[in-house]
């Protein structure tokens, strides 16, 4: 769930696509594989056939419906910010930009030029690539500025468990095999909301957060919100906002970002959308930031 990184060094501005490789090198096999290229509305897909294509289409449709109240909240927040908006984005002056990004997600509108090495794979629209290391039918290999290369199959084979990531700068959103094992159903009520410790004035870790050891992760780690985060990266990179900062995944850290930094934090959009959708009403007090030196364990004690 991260922009393509190597040893913690962001490759955002200088990452270039070196080659498009398929299992078979012959032109005939390449042409045959092009038959697996697909579309879901304006979104393009590569290697996402069969059940994966059906799941992806369903999740994108569910995400589009789920974003309706979120976009309304963002637009209203330009005048009267909601509690969720104030916690994650602070400045109402940015509400129009946030609403526009979320609206673009619902349409899949193209904001990038065609993929030069192989425009038939992507015409610049956000393009999903489904990667299965056990069945490598499609792969992209990227040049690393300091020499060498890195490929998507390697990223999806990460023992730490890569789920999905945006390969920046390109139109590609990579969905690893593990992504399709995530929960398929959105949280539908306040029982899915993060829990506030009012003494510490921060969210505390719920038992459901233990899977990823990130406070707040259980709120948005279903397929739709993961898709939202990665699609947002595509639109942020195509806009005036191109953050090179590491993402703040912990909900308390996301909430303590400045208004400018929160705009470039893809996870903030997922937190914002998932909590608005779940109608979460309990929030830390906005005039006090979460303590900087509190660790996760202290939040669990209370």
Question: What labels describe this entry?
Answer:
302 residues, alpha+beta, five-stranded mixed sheet, 12 strands, 15% strand, globular, disordered N terminus
Q: How does the SSE layout of this entry go?
A:
Elements lengths: L4 E2 L2 E2 L5 E7 L4 H7 L4 E3 L2 E4 L3 H28 L5 H6 L6 H13 L19 E5 L6 E6 L5 E3 H5 L7 E3 L5 E5 L18 E3 L4 E3 L12 H4 L2 H15 L13 H5 L3 H5 L2 H12 L18 H6 L1
Parallel strand pairs: 5-6, 6-10
Antiparallel strand pairs: 1-2, 3-7, 4-5, 7-8, 9-10, 11-12
Amino- and carboxy-terminal Cα gap? 30 Å
What structural class do you assign from the helix and strand content? alpha+beta
Main sheet: which strands, in order across? Answer: 4-5-6-10-9
State which percent range the strand residues make up. Answer: 15-25%
Main sheet characteristics = 5 strands, mixed
> Which sequence of SSEs, written as H and E, runs from N to C?
EEEHEEHHHEEEHEEEEHHHHHH
Radius of gyration: 19 Å
Q: Give the number of DSSP strands.
A: 12
- Structural shape: globular
Percent range for helical residues?
25-40%
Mean pLDDT: 75
Number of helices: 11
Runs in which pLDDT lies below 50 for 5 or more consecutive residues are: 1-35, 293-302
């Amino acid at each position: 769930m991260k922009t393509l990184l190597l040893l913690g060094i962001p490759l955002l501005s200088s990452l270039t696509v070196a080659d498009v490789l398929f299992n078979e090198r012959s032109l005939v096999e390449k042409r045959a594989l092009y038959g697996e290229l697909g579309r879901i509305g304006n979104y393009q897909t590569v290697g996402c056939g069969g059940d994966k294509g059906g799941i992806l289409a369903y999740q994108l449709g569910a995400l589009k419906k789920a974003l309706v109240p979120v976009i309304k909240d963002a637009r209203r927040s330009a005048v009267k910010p909601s509690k969720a908006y104030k916690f994650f984005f602070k400045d109402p002056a940015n509400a129009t930009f946030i609403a526009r990004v979320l609206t673009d997600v619902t349409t899949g509108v193209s904001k990038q030029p065609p993929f030069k090495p192989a425009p038939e794979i992507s015409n610049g629209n956000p393009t999903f690539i489904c990667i299965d290391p056990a069945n490598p039918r499609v792969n992209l290999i990227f040049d690393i500025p300091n020499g060498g290369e890195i490929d998507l199959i390697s990223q999806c084979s990460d023992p730490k468990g890569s789920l999905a990531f945006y390969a920046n700068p390109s139109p590609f959103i990579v969905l690893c095999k593990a992504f399709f094992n995530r929960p398929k159903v959105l949280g539908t009520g306040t029982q899915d909301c993060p829990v506030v410790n009012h003494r510490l004035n921060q969210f505390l870790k719920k038992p459901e957060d233990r899977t990823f050891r990130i406070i707040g992760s259980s709120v948005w780690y279903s397929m739709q919100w993961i898709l939202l985060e990665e699609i947002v990266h595509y639109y942020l990179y195509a806009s005036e906002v191109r953050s090179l900062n590491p993402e703040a995944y912990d909900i308390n850290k996301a909430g303590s970002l400045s208004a400018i930094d929160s705009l470039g934090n893809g996870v903030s959009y997922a937190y914002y959308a998932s909590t608005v959708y779940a109608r979460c009403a309990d929030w830390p007090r906005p005039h006090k930031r979460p303590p900087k030196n509190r660790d996760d364990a202290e939040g669990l004690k209370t």
